[in-house]
Amino acid sequence: MLNKDFLWGGATAANQCEGAWDVGGKGVSMADILPGKIRQKYIFADPDAFYTKKFDYYPSHIGVDFYHRYKEDIALMAEMGFKCYRMSIAWTRIYPTGEESEPLEEGLKFYDDVFDELLKYDIQPLVTLSHFDTPLELNSKYNGWIDKHLVDCFEKFCKTVFVRYRNKVKYWLTFNEVNAVTKLFVPNGTRMKEGDNPDQIGYQVLHNMCLAGAKAVKLCHEIIPDAKIGCMVQYSPVYPYSCHPDDVLAALDFERDRELFAIDLQAKGEYPYYTRRMFKKLGVVLDTNEDELEILKNNSVDFISFSYYMSLTYAREEFVAEQTEGNIFSGIRNPYLNSTEWGWQIDAKGLRFACNRLYSLYGKPLFIVENGVGVDEKMVNETVNDNYRIEYLKNHIEQLKEAVDDGVQIMGYTMWSPIDIVSNSTGEMRKRYGVIYVDLDDDGKGTLNRYKKKSFYWYKNVIETNGEELD
Question: Is 370 a known active-site residue?
């Protein structure tokens, strides 16, 4: 049975929902130069194209206009009974280039108004400090998070928002899915030159961001002593494809490299015991010092939050099998699981396994801050009969409850997402996650009107019964 204080809600990101990308003095972020439907074409093949090409449409420029419609959207969340709303602050609304000496008052006032609206309905804000939207100027001028100057810029931003919102926000997250930065250009903004070792770049970026996160933890504890601040990672438990010992070891290495390593840095405050061997294999030599390691050690997070969309299956390198898509990382198709139309495999029981694994490894409270299914769906008679979404969420919440019965401490669950927003992975609107439909297409055309799906009423009842009624 879930605790009566369990934090039910939903999650979004500023760059996927706010829009108003140049309103109120806001600067340009990394997210503002990402194109729409063809985004995936460049994520791995040609990340420089984000800087050098002029695309027809940039989804973050409109988002779903939460900037102007936040009162309407928060009222809908309140109607569902939300206890918590995970959102992010757009860094460039506060410091347009990241290097200004003074913050933008208009940006600060916007989030004051949003937090006030949430608190009016007794909805607790859970605020992500950085959700894939580093100021573009910092990426262009310093090549992103490979430069430690960004640590100082981020620290200044954090101090500003902690002081401003210390009486309004009691739950904070540092970086969204920070483990992604070792492999993906988009979250870290660092471009590689010919001959660069991508693992060297990726792990130096991760170190710099975790150092910045530790400084944020320190500031938060000093400025808002009654607040809790956590890390946020993308976590998919990794199954070996078979019981062949080499498959088991390959799965272990994959999980360490892409997921657990980043959690160790933030939850334990130290580099894991297998670092030396892994770095030797990857050719990584970090630029760090004892002072930085001490900051990491003394400022670990209060809890671990994570996104869960799927499990992954992995095998020894020489094994050849059908691959499947995933959220950031992909693996081998698991023959025992079904997949979404985007190729993400559905594994509700994997959530229970994930919760148990993380809790046994780190012993810190967990918060499931993203879980949902993207579907190409049409509205009929001003609603969507999304029984498939209800089934997906029901099955995952059942496994969440099983994990709690196992003894795992789980603070809350914010599904992705309460409202249709721009998909981060594909830049599309047609990949819809919400329990609220938004009339907007992949080209930015539509009324932006909101409509309740069938799942809206189902989720409302789930929250009202604290997860007891799922049918």
Answer: yes
